[in-house]
Amino acid sequence: MDNDGLTQYTRIAISLAERIASGQLKEGDKISGRSKLSPEYNVSPETIRRALRLLADMVPEGARLADVGTDHGYLPVFLLQKGRIAGAIASDIVPGPLQHARQTATEYEVEGIDFRLCPGLYAIGAEEADTIVIAGMGGETIQAVLEAAPWTGDGGHLLLLQPMTKVEFLRKWLSDNGYSFTDERLVFDKDHLYPVFAVRGGRQSPLTLAQQYGGVLLDGDPLYGAYLDERIGKLQKAINGLQKSAAIESAVKVKELTELCRILKEKRDTL
């Protein structure tokens, strides 16, 4: 997970937590001057702000967390340091990253993490966690993890998902398979915008094609306009490629994507 968006945010958060622990910052102090922090991490001040908000707002107070694909374990370590969660399971499919997570917990003297070597949620029971984080994976991989653990759709678990690819595929799959969107936010990292979904088990109306591509609950997000521009640009590239084909199927797809672009442009113009 070194290359995913969430890891960068959690690294920032854990570094700030270390400063609190060492006395450089007092817990509860207002962190001002984000522009002073941003050069240190080679990110924008907005990235700093979103890093903190992502951790502070989307994981509920007192949660029992399962962090799937935990890598270095920054997320559960930070949240336990802050007293935000009751406990955590950190899982990874590869022994090396799981060992790194153990080292992170030891380094920051954090207890309360159960480390498990397993694919996805394979070794995690429904009763052991109420909040599941799956971040930095492709949409199809996240779908496979959830499909192998149908209990995630029982309505009693909050899922925080950050797909790096196949975003529209995952949105549709979640909607079609009994998950309901409760929140959706955008994070910016390395010149790209990535959505984070909060979903629970529960039926909702089928998503339109525009919702699959453009988002379900992003209307109030300050980065939504930029996200729509990014999505429109990708759709336009796909249209340009299809127009080079003489196949009837390509012409049908061009018509569909052109209409989708029109809808997303209208949405963007209303922001």
Low-confidence parts: 1-11, 27-45
Lateral strand order in the biggest sheet = 3-2-1-4-5-7-6
Mean pLDDT: 82
Shape: elongated
The CATH topology of the largest domain, please? Rossmann fold
The profile of the biggest β sheet is: 7 strands, mixed
CATH architecture identity of the largest domain = 3-Layer(aba) Sandwich
The CATH class of the largest domain is: Alpha Beta
Number of helices: 10
CATH superfamily of the largest domain: Vaccinia Virus protein VP39
Strand content: 15-25%
- Number of structural units classed as domains: 2
SS-based structural class? alpha/beta
The N- to C-terminal Cα distance equals: 33 Å
Overview of the structural elements:
This protein is an alpha/beta fold and 271 residues long. It folds into 2 domains: 5-222, Rossmann fold (3-Layer(aba) Sandwich), CATH 3.40.50; 223-271. Helix content is 47%, strand content 20%. It has 10 helices and 7 strands. The protein has helices at 5-22, 34-41, 45-58, 74-81, 95-107, 139-147, 167-176, 209-214, 224-242, 248-269; strands at residues 63-68, 85-92, 113-117, 131-137, 158-163, 179-189, 192-201. The protein is elongated, with a radius of gyration of 20 Å.
Features:
single chain; 271 residues; alpha/beta; Rossmann fold; 10 helices; 20% strand
Describe this structure in a few short sentences:
The chain has helices spanning 5-22, 34-41, 45-58, 74-81, 95-107, 139-147, 167-176, 209-214, 224-242, 248-269, and strands spanning 63-68, 85-92, 113-117, 131-137, 158-163, 179-189, 192-201. By secondary structure, the protein is of the alpha/beta class.
